[in-house]
Amino acid sequence: MKKLITTVLLGCAMITAGAQSKDSKMDRFIDELMNKMTIEEKIGQLNLPGSGDIVTGQAKNSDIAGKIKRGQVGGLFNIKGVEKIKDVQRVAVEESRLGIPLIFGMDVIHGYETVFPIPLGLSCSWDMEAIEKSARIAATEASADGICWTFSPMVDISRDPRWGRVSEGNGEDPYLGGQIAKAMVRGYQGTGDKTFTTNNQIMSCVKHYALYGAGEAGRDYNTVDMSHQRMYSEYFYPYQAAVEAGVGSVMASFNEVDGVPATANRWLMTEVLRNQWGFNGFVVTDFTGIAEMVDHGIGDLQTVSARALNAGIDMDMVAEGFLTTIKKSFDEGKVTKAEIDLACRRILEAKYKLGLFSDPYKYCDVSRVKKEVYAPEHRQLARKIAAESFVLLKNDNNLLPLSKKGTIAVVGPLGNTKENMPGTWSVAADFNKATTVVDGLKSVVGNKANVVYAKGSNLTTDPVLEDRATMFDRSLKRDDRTEEELRNEALQIAKNADVIVATLGESSEYSGESSSRSEIGIPDVQQRLLMELLKTGKPVVLVLFTGRPLTLTWENENVPAILNVWFGGTEAAYAIGDVLFGDVNPSGKLTTTFPQNVGQIPLYYNHKNTGRPLAEGKWFEKFRSNYLDVSNDPVYPFGYGLSYSQFDYSDVTLSSTAIDSNGELTASITVTNKGKMDGKEVVQFYIRDIVGSVTRPVKELKGFEKIFLKAGEAKTVTFKITPELLKFYNYDLNYVFELGDFDVMIGGNSRDVKSAKFTLK
Ligand code: BGC
After folding, report:
1. CA-CA distance, 512 to 425, in Å (whole number)?
2. Residue 173 known to be catalytic
3. Considering only CA atoms, which residue is closest to atom 8 of ligand 1?
4. Which CATH superfamily is domain 645-760 in?
């Protein structure tokens, strides 16, 4: 066994659960304010109701106004419109006893009115600068419209594509998820002493803490049960990374952890989050998270509210458990004044940091909306980023890019919809402003080619399922004709076209919250349409819309070209044209594994080896860890994605094959663009720790670089390896490195890599 070198981290840095400001001016201000507050007013700050019905100019008469005046509201969320927000803020500032301003939150998840790709798509760009910029623009637009707090980033690791909310996260890898978390927080808030200095920086809220993506069977809100080893090694890092980046707030998840709902889990909310990671912002529950603990079965509303406060929750979203029961619990000695004060202080600190005490209307400059929301330069960037999020899954005989000529038949239920373009969780989007694929392609080809359209099929055969998958005004306007009638119309236009662009897959609400699926293929009726389109003998390009990995076994075998466009946001249609016609060379790489079938789930690249791994090159051996009826391989592995260029990887060169615990080495590889087009490639760097005191994954992403190579150009990419990079959580959850041998693997995806070995002595 290797010698244990370092033990660190856990249990050190006992920062008590208190607000830990280094800002004495802020402390004094809040001390003075809190001295004036009654216990009821303090509890009022912990209350975050939904916005209710507020009509512009009528805030005073709104259903929530009475509570605001009585000091029973700390913030509101999901109200859209700066005029309204300003009005409501005025009620708080002018008509409540102490005039404490409200904080206004919203789910600004992947853009505001300018919508970027769904987070899963955005993550496939592997472009941290672009991701940060997308968050910056989202913050700019949201703040111009009165919002100063966003419930983003969502960083839940998930290995279960049945779960609809994989669309909102960054895939399956903790390291990549952590980098993205940091980029988003920087984009929303700014960094260091440049945080919240301008009125276009807003507070970020990392969610859903913790482990929400690991619900059993991919069913939303379901039970989570995993070892602490796995939590620390595979699921926690993205949340921790957001904390390291200075995230101002954290949202508790709905699920239970170790048998206690996260919302009442003191170990999670105080021991890990604050004592171990040093978080000093505030924690808000998820929507009705407190009241749901009654159904979890851990007590009545008063009990669960007290447990949440004891655990370290500061703000109660919607449930009003704090508002209606904490005073009683205080009187009965079930919660302390110190606990109430602490939560209240954390909320007031957030408002102070945002600058709301100096100017409650900091985010209410009504002149900004016109200039800053849905601004042309934002849209331009969104188009560029959307194209970077697309993943080219297949391209036989270089069918793509298409020429801008002849007749292009767009066929499929996703080809002519605006409402389904922005994707799930785009609450501020104005659907009328989105562009359909048909119009996007027309705009890109201009008068050089003829674009025609037929729906070809409904989303699904089952109208009830279609209803559920097109909620929130995302209707696909179900066509009452028979399957055959719809298909025949499509075949008719396909017959006369030069190429068929099949726009198939999921509608935007087929994934997202409470949209788990037990089958994750392209819906039956669309698949039948695709088969018929292929039978025409015309070239078929599948433009795949999806919010999750789908089982594309049949499509991968039968369709010559597949471009996965996720849901690319308001500008997606143009970006689809840019990529299909070769104005942009695709460069997205999957951040989540695409399984062959549902039975293989969970399937992820950084798995353990087991004691009975399959021999290389085999897909079945008796008494090995495998299935009788399907190989262990995915259809598309993590990190996979094609380009119109071909990238050739040299062997890996190490600067040395051994280092000691103070040393470092480099691993280099030369990548050559062998294609005819300039292009970008995401060079991925993995490590395997061959022997550990606990079992180690077969590979783990440790770095990546997205490079641009002109046609014919070669570049050498170098990754630095230090013992720090080799650390992991051992059995006692100490974060350590251990001496021994390591594999270095570098390549364009997690499967096809070049490798070398070194030793840490
Ligand atoms: C979701 C959160 C969201 C909240 C507020 C909940 O249902 O789980 O992600 O931020 O609603 O809209």
Report:
1. 7
2. no
3. 286
4. Immunoglobulins (2.60.40.10)
